[in-house]
């Protein structure tokens, strides 16, 4: 099967600090000579602030192959699942450190077979669930060794099922197989190529290239699946191709890279080499968007 067939094409979800907002659907203008992007228009929004369908400082969002949306409802210590129209389906989790419990989960990812991976941030671990919230496994603990975390905040799954975790405190990315076995680690504090300062968002494209929102370096870095540096773009500012604390990153079905430019209150979309394609948003439309997902 072509890898792209796993995508529910053309739905983009951004996550504001206080509510899940802005599900955007595609229009299809003629492709330019250099790019063939999706163009998104506003479709719907949902969420306010603690029963079903409401949120308390949500951070992470993911979309599965059927268009269902999963939200890391951080301060409510749970995951919520919605259909493509924002209708509530299920929720699971509560405050704690047992299996299926969370302490401020900050991100969520879905693999091509529908398994759910949650960054259980304050418990310094990853938890894996089926699509109905059934617990499968967990791994990680607090520390600086391989397979340990300081403050994990981002998670992504590549097309081979490998799991990548961005650790804000240790300024690194770790790679695991789908069962949580450690494979590799790269990064370290700094501003050079392959170094990070508080990385948060992470995404994989169809070729298993990995994109990191290097938040406090105000840039995006791109690596192959082994952690070899490929390219980077961005600097601090509010102009095109600049960022102010970018926190979320996602890749659409055409390989374009969508970035939640948090303190500039906007989304910017780039090709895979970092050339700007489009942007939208301001403080009146988006309030410090923390995350972006494409399905």
What this model shows, in words?
This protein is mainly β. The protein is built from no helices and 24 strands. The protein has strands at residues 12-15, 20-27, 39-44, 60-63, 69-73, 78-82, 88-92, 105-110, 116-120, 125-129, 135-139, 152-157, 163-167, 172-176, 182-187, 202-204, 210-214, 219-223, 229-233, 248-251, 257-261, 266-270, 276-280, 291-294. The strands form six sheets. It has a four-stranded antiparallel β-sheet, with no helix packed on it. The chain has a four-stranded antiparallel β-sheet with strand order 4-5-6-7, with no helix packed on it.
Topology diagram in text:
Layout: E1 12-15, E2 20-27, E3 39-44, E4 60-63, E5 69-73, E6 78-82, E7 88-92, E8 105-110, E9 116-120, E10 125-129, E11 135-139, E12 152-157, E13 163-167, E14 172-176, E15 182-187, E16 202-204, E17 210-214, E18 219-223, E19 229-233, E20 248-251, E21 257-261, E22 266-270, E23 276-280, E24 291-294
Antiparallel strand pairs: 1-2, 1-24, 2-3, 4-5, 5-6, 6-7, 8-9, 9-10, 10-11, 12-13, 13-14, 14-15, 16-17, 17-18, 18-19, 20-21, 21-22, 22-23
